[in-house]
């Protein structure tokens, strides 16, 4: 996480696996490829939060609910961390609203004809499932496609500016997403032997 300050204005830049919560008028930015960011806010308490996560698994069945999969547990953990930090700051869970971004398919791969889907698509499916299960309205979204995104989330009015990064300019983003994805798979493989981890 990096912080940039210019006078009284502050911008927070988060990386994969990070989240940030604030009750101040900050701008929070991140660069998304296959990853997803959930931008949550409590409009009454004026508290915002954002995360940046990537579900990690080798293959995803199209007909299986993502939230109950091993990879989905990581996403659920990322969302609950964000929500809990917002509540600690004074937000009320029943007031929360969401905007979601990311989940791009960044590689030149034709859509698979079998019962499995790509990482970006699964991240998009996950955020829809999670928010629906939790009763948090999704008021805006820009998910999927074959572009990366830079987003800037303004805490002052809960607006999100999203700029697309086209395929020919995202080689480094693909590499970063893949490294993050592989590290999370290794973590899950290491913790599989601990059955009480997700109780």
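-> sequence recovered:
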């Amino acid at each position: 996480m990096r912080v940039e300050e210019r006078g009284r204005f502050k911008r927070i830049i988060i990386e994969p696996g990070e989240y940030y919560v604030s009750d101040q008028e900050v701008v929070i930015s991140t660069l998304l490829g296959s990853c997803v960011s959930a931008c949550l806010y409590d409009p009454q308490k004026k508290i915002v939060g954002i995360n940046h996560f990537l579900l990690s698994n080798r293959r995803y069945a199209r007909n299986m609910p993502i939230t109950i999969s091993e990879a989905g547990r990581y996403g659920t953990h990322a969302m609950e961390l964000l929500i809990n930090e917002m509540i600690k700051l004074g937000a009320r869970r029943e007031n929360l609203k969401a905007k979601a971004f990311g989940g791009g398919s960044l590689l030149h791969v034709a859509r698979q004809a079998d019962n499995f889907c790509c990482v970006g698509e699964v991240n998009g499916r996950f955020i829809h499932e999670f928010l629906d299960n939790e009763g948090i309205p999704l008021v805006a979204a820009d998910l999927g496609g074959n572009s990366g995104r830079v987003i800037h989330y303004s805490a002052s009015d809960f607006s999100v500016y999203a700029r697309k990064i086209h395929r020919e300019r995202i080689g480094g983003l693909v590499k970063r997403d893949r490294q993050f994805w592989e590290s999370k798979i290794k973590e899950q493989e290491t913790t599989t032997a601990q059955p009480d981890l997700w109780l």
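Helices lie at 70-88, 119-134, 171-191.
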